[in-house]
Write a structure and sequence with these properties.
34% strand; 27% helix; single chain; alpha+beta; Pnp Oxidase, Chain A; nine-stranded antiparallel β-sheet
Length: 208
C-alpha cells in the first residue's frame, strides 16, 4: 500500500492546493485524538521595540480568511497587536506527532461576529470578561473576586450581559502555513505554503 503522496511525503499531507483544506483535515484528526484542547495554540506577538512574547490561546474559528481567537483588547497581547499586527501561531498535537506553524497579520473581527461568539459563552465566562483587567497587577486575589461579585450583581439577568467594548476577537490572515510531521531520527517531513503576490498558494518542501 502506497504510504506517500505525489511529492514523497507521508500520505497525511495529501495533495491539496489549499492549505486551509489540509488544516481542516488535520484539525479534525486532532479533535479525535488530543485529550485536552485540540484547539490550543501558541500565539507569538511582539511590541514596537521587537521584544517577543508567547502564550497559549484557543482557536475559536477559521475559514479561508484566517484563524480567530478572542481576548481582552487591553491585555499585553492586545496592546502589542495594536502596535504591531504581525504575529505567528503554532499548533502542536503530540498524539499525532504533528505541528502547524502560521505566520500573518492580525485584524479585529466585526462587532457582529464578536457579539455572536460572546453570547454563546457561559454566563460565568461573560462576567469574567467584564471583571478581569487582563495582565494588570492585582493587589490580592480578593480584588478580582470582588469585581466578579460586583458584575454578577450588575448583570444578574444571565440573558442580558452585553459584550464589553474592551473584549473582542482577532483574526490572523496568513501569509504562510507550514505543516510538520515527526520523523525517525529527526528526519522530519515539512511542507510549507506561501501566498505569492498573485494571492496564489505555492508549496515548498523544507529540510528537517
Amino acid at each position: 500500500m502506497n504510504q506517500k503522496n505525489s511529492i514523497g511525503l507521508d500520505k497525511c499531507f495529501l495533495d491539496l492546493k489549499d492549505p486551509f483544506e489540509l488544516f481542516k483535515k488535520w484539525f479534525e484528526e486532532a479533535k479525535k485524538s488530543e485529550i485536552n484542547d485540540p484547539n490550543a495554540l501558541a500565539l507569538a506577538t511582539s511590541n514596537k521595540q521587537g521584544i517577543p512574547s508567547v502564550r497559549m490561546v484557543l482557536l475559536k474559528g477559521f475559514d479561508e480568511n484566517g484563524f480567530v481567537f478572542y481576548t481582552n483588547l487591553n491585555s499585553q497581547k492586545g496592546n502589542e497587536l495594536k502596535e504591531n499586527p504581525n504575529a505567528s501561531m503554532c499548533f502542536h498535537w503530540k498524539s499525532l506527532l504533528r505541528q502547524i506553524r502560521i505566520v500573518g497579520t492580525l485584524e479585529l473581527v466585526d462587532d457582529k461576529v464578536a457579539d455572536n461568539y460572546y453570547n454563546s459563552r457561559e454566563y460565568e465566562s461573560r462576567i469574567g470578561a467584564w471583571a478581569s483587567k487582563q495582565s494588570s497587577i492585582l493587589k490580592s486575589r480578593n480584588e478580582l473576586l470582588d469585581r466578579l461579585k460586583k458584575f454578577k450583581e450588575k448583570f444578574s439577568d444571565k440573558e442580558k450581559v452585553p459584550r464589553p467594548s474592551h473584549w473582542s476577537g482577532w483574526n490572523l490572515k496568513p501569509s504562510s502555513i507550514e505543516f510538520w510531521l515527526d520523523g525517525d531520527n529527526r528526519i522530519h517531513e515539512r511542507l510549507k505554503y506561501d501566498l505569492n503576490e498573485k494571492k496564489v498558494w505555492v508549496k515548498s518542501l523544507l529540510s528537517p
